[in-house]
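Structure ticket #2291
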Amino acid sequence: MSPTKPAVTKAALKPRRWVPVLTPAQVKSQAARLRQAVPSLAVAYSEALRRWVGDPMLRLAGLPIITECYRSPERQNELFEQGRSKPGPVVTYKRGGESNHNKVPTPALDVAFLLVDGSVSWSGLLLSKFARLMKAADARVRWGGDWSKFKDRPHFEV
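Resolution: structure written out below.
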């Protein structure tokens, strides 16, 4: 009698991804968001991203993505209401028209990390590592995680 072979499924044959990869639609969305930024911020982000992706250990941790760049005053007001008249934590102290995100082109952008499973993380540890790269790319970059009153770790601005 010969031993039976275990069944091979399609999932078992599919190669495992070890690093996050953007879909074509996400690549297009990221480029559109980056075009909303003032040139110096766009260059700093691009340089920090290049360095992140070029480091094998950082690349395994996740892929930096821009979650927001320009934000309409209406969207700003929606975020302002969060933690006040709407559920969730407070994410901003600025009303519509008061935030750097409301300027065109905008001197502000928010970053998160795409993880290999497709989820998004706002890890303070990952954001602090990315902040070092952003500030190294341009000394004018200010990171919201350095602010003394309200820590806005996803936020970068010039």
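Closing remark: The first strand starts at residue 63 and ends at 68.
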